[in-house]
Amino acid sequence: MAKLVLIRHGQSEWNLANLFTGWEDVDLSEKGVAQAKAAGKAIKEHGLEFDYAYTSVLKRAIKTLHYALEESDQMWIPEFKTWRLNERHYGALQGKNKADAAEKYGDEQVHIWRRSYDVLPPLLSADDEGSAAKDRRYANLDPRTIPGGENLKVTLERVIPLWEDEIAPKLLDNKNVIIAAHGNSLRALSKYIENISDEDIMNLEMATGEPVVYDFDEKLNVLSKDKYPVD
Ligand SMILES: O=C(O)[C@@H](CO)OP(=O)(O)O
To answer: Which InterPro entries does the UniProt record give (predicted)?
Structure first.
C-alpha cells in the first residue's frame, strides 16, 4: 500500500543558536542544507517516488522539501503549503534562549514547556510584537484561529483536519505522500498515526533532516516504520 515520508526540516539557524523558534520564520543553517540534500539522496537511493508533497508556510520546511525533491529528481510533483503543518507556536518564549530560560525558570519547567502534552507556554496576545496576527501570510485565517502559543495537544488538533481531509484520502487512494515540517507538528502527527499515548509522546524525538518512512495497510494501520539517518 501507500507510503508516507515525514521529514523534520534540516538544522535551522535558531536550532544552532538554541533559541525557541515556533512560528518564527528562520532559515536553514549550512548543516541544515546539507541534511536536507542528504535526505533527498537517501530518498533516491531507496527508490521512493511521491505523488504529492505537503509543507508548512515556514521557509526551513519549504526549503528542506525543495532540496529533498531536487536531489531525488521529483521537483515537479504537486506541492501544498499550509499553516496547519507549522511548528507548534511557542508563545512568548519565541526568540528566547533555551539555556537562559532553564536558568531562569528551572530545567523542569522548561522541560514541561518543551515536551508535556497539554501544558501551554506563556502566551503572546494579538497586539504583542511578533504576534502572527500581524503577519500577512495568516491574513486569510479567522483571527480566533491564530494562536498566541500552543502545546502539543492544540498542535495535534490543527494538524488532524489536514490529515483527514487531504492526506489520509490520498494514502487510501494508494498515492505516496511526503511531508516536510517541524519537530512538534510531526510529533503530533506521529502520535495520531501510531496511536502513541499522552505520556509516551514526551519521549518521541524527531531528528533534523531524517526521513521517517511509514508503510500502511489498506485501513491505514502502520505495517512498518523506517528511518534514514542523514548525519
Ligand atoms: O524551538 C522550537 O520551535 C522547537 C523545535 O526546534 O524546539 P523544541 O525542541 O523545544 O521542541
So the answer is: His_Pase_superF_clade-1 (IPR013078), His_PPase_superfam (IPR029033), PG/BPGM_mutase_AS (IPR001345), Phosphogly_mut1 (IPR005952)
- Which atom of ligand 1 is nearest to 88's Cα? 3
What domains, with CATH codes, occur in the chain?
A: 3-227 (3.40.50.1240)
Residue type present at position 91: G
> Which residue intervals of the chain are DSSP H helices?
13-16, 30-45, 59-71, 98-105, 107-115, 152-162, 168-172, 183-194
Q: Is the pTM of this model over 0.95?
A: yes
Concerning whether 87 is annotated as a catalytic residue, the answer is yes
User: In this structure, are strands 177-181 and 3-8 parallel, antiparallel, or unpaired?
Assistant: parallel
Cα(70)–Cα(29) distance, integer angstroms: 18
Model pLDDT for residues 152-186, shown as the tens digit of each residue = 999 999 999 999 999 999 999 999 999 999 999 99
Using DSSP's 3-state secondary structure scheme, residue 177 falls into strand
> ipTM of this model?
0.96
- CA 108 to each of CA 13, 132, 184: distance values in angstroms, whole numbers, following the listed order: 25, 28, 19
The amino acid at 231 = D
| Residue 18 Cα to ligand 1 middle (Å) | 9
Tens of pLDDT, residues 39-76: 999 999 999 999 999 999 999 999 999 999 999 999 99
